[in-house]
Amino acid sequence: MTDVAKLANVSQMTVSRVMRNSGYVSESVINRVVSAATEIGYVNNRLAGGLAGADSSLVGVVLPTLQNRVFSEVLSGVTTAFSESNVQPVFGVSEYSQRVETQLVLDLLAWRPKGLILSGLEHSKELRDTLLASSVRVVEVMDIDGRPIESSFGFSHRKAGWEMAQHLLGKGYKRFAYVGCQPNRDLRAVKRYKSFCNTVHRAGAQMVVTKYSDEPSSMLIGRQCTEAILREKHKPDVIYYANDDLAAGGLMHCLAHQIQVPKQIALAGFNGLGFLESLPMQITTSRTPRFEIGTAAAEFVSGDPKELVEPVKVDFAVDLVAGDTT
Amino acid sequence: MTDVAKLANVSQMTVSRVMRNSGYVSESVINRVVSAATEIGYVNNRLAGGLAGADSSLVGVVLPTLQNRVFSEVLSGVTTAFSESNVQPVFGVSEYSQRVETQLVLDLLAWRPKGLILSGLEHSKELRDTLLASSVRVVEVMDIDGRPIESSFGFSHRKAGWEMAQHLLGKGYKRFAYVGCQPNRDLRAVKRYKSFCNTVHRAGAQMVVTKYSDEPSSMLIGRQCTEAILREKHKPDVIYYANDDLAAGGLMHCLAHQIQVPKQIALAGFNGLGFLESLPMQITTSRTPRFEIGTAAAEFVSGDPKELVEPVKVDFAVDLVAGDTT
DNA sequence: CTGTTAGCGCCTTCAT
DNA sequence: ATGAAGGCGCTAACAG
């Protein structure tokens, strides 16, 4: 920067002002500085900038996985929102481990980010305490059923589970099954499940079978679990899946074996992923606004850090989409 | 750090040594420093660390999109590799625009990353020149057909297109169709396409129809394009799709309309995405090692920056998987 | 509108 | 095995 200043015949401070276009700088000086900068190929050093007091304009993002479209869509929303500003996301994947998540956040904090985007409301005590003590803006996405560290942008999984149960009960189904994956990891799915079961039971209907896979969720697992369930003695008349991938796998099994949907078995998923539209049948599901939650969270954390913002809890409503499978 | 030093009754420099466990520090001092640090909740400041000369341990990653599983899997590989080290990825999405990509890289460079991961070999001249002049390690992923800036980790799309054409010609197909999306964006698909066409023509067979959509690729688009192609007068006997999403959409169309695959129409995709396994039929495709390319690239760029590494071009072979659709 | 001064928190180098 | 001095490149705060 000093070099640029010399070349442009101004003080280094003026160069700094031009670079951030802050304060008053005359037109002519701006031009001189800019051309000097391009001439020597000056590249701003944000490490120094951040250190000197300006906000670092980094935002930490920690998601449980990228193998699941849900989270890559959240991330997509985040990056889209940041592309407008000059904020950069620093990224980490926790693999659904609170220990890893805690470590990642600690590492990210070393970059003095202006904000942090986490997912879910369940974290290690250490993480909670650290973040409560720190001054970075924190937003937890994809869930609002619980006590956020600061702000949460998401929706109620309990409500989503209740709503789907209501829908299915309304359709007259009596014998329910559930298929999920890794219940010790996907805590949000468990919230939906519990609420779903409660609603089913209160209506006097019953859960015939609940099947959990230890594998990460995928269409293939959905297919296999569905096959297993339909082989059992006491068949359900509807299967509620933890997500659309599983449900689509179930549909694939039915298609491949000429099982009539929803006559012989009804199917319902969760998330409303885009690929459902092109399946031979529209699967009943709950549409979650993943991309929008990502953009909203990104905009929230990257706001002016000086202005104190009240923590908020934003409920992005989930949208039950009745398809042909129920 | 000075505070920690006071509490532990050592110099700040010693604290620095302990934090990085570099140099010789006695056992007892280490313990004192560590407990002092935890006591006051010390968080290392990497901005200062980076400024003072240590490498920043950030790696910039710029991908064209996150809407496509292919790239979220690459990113997944990258983050997995970094989870071992203490390197953090800073992330950007170019939306397939060279202008945006250039700007993103310029922004990322301001963080003094130790490396940069880009995708594809086609970039703006400005980007090329900037990166050639800079000292950051650059690796371009997912393509090796061309002249990399420095190193490239990927595979040959020309070879993949040739190989699929060979496979289909070998199966006796004579009338070929192609379905793709946004050819001005997905340059790598175009490479496959050209090579595919050449091979088909050289064998004396013909391309009956080529259909491009302006929309981003999806199963739905694949379904619609397939429907359009099968309505045409001169029907092909096989369709080569730019990727698996399109091909799966094509299969869905056939399933929904009782069109016999591969008897009435054969289908082939590209990438070998995981979800193909659970479709009612195995689609013929070329399996690309996206995750592995991500991890390899990440490990390469995050190596010790002091040791000069020769640029490399690594060919991750593509694996043609013959399914039931050809 | 432009310049001066004083760090930000850490690491490199050189001493001891 | 530990400490002291100096500076990385930038920006806040204050002058003018």
How would you sum up this structure, described in words?
The structure is a homodimer of 326-residue chains. The first copy, chain A, has 326 residues and is an alpha/beta fold. Chain A has three domains: 2-40; 54-155 and 290-317, Rossmann fold; 157-287, Response regulator (Rossmann fold, 3-Layer(aba) Sandwich). Chain A contains twelve helices and twelve strands. Chain A has helices at residues 2-8, 12-19, 27-40, 46-51, 69-84, 98-109, 125-133, 157-170, 187-202, 219-231, 244-256, 290-301; strands at 58-63, 88-93, 115-119, 137-141, 151-154, 175-181, 206-213, 238-241, 266-268, 285-287, 313-315, 319-321. Chain A has a six-stranded parallel beta sheet, sandwiched between helices. In chain A, strands 7-6-8-9 form a four-stranded parallel beta sheet, sandwiched between helices. In chain A, helix 5 links the parallel strand 1 and strand 2. Chain A is elongated. Chain A binds a DNA duplex (16 and 16 nucleotides) through residues 1-2, 10-14, 16-17, 19-20, 22-26, 29, 44-54.
List the helices and strands and how they pair.
Two copies of one chain form a homodimer.
Chain A: H1 2-8, H2 12-19, H3 27-40, H4 46-51, E1 58-63, H5 69-84, E2 88-93, H6 98-109, E3 115-119, H7 125-133, E4 137-141, E5 151-154, H8 157-170, E6 175-181, H9 187-202, E7 206-213, H10 219-231, E8 238-241, H11 244-256, E9 266-268, E10 285-287, H12 290-301, E11 313-315, E12 319-321
Helix pairs in contact in A: 1-2, 1-3, 5-12, 8-9, 10-11
The structure holds a DNA duplex (16 and 16 nucleotides).
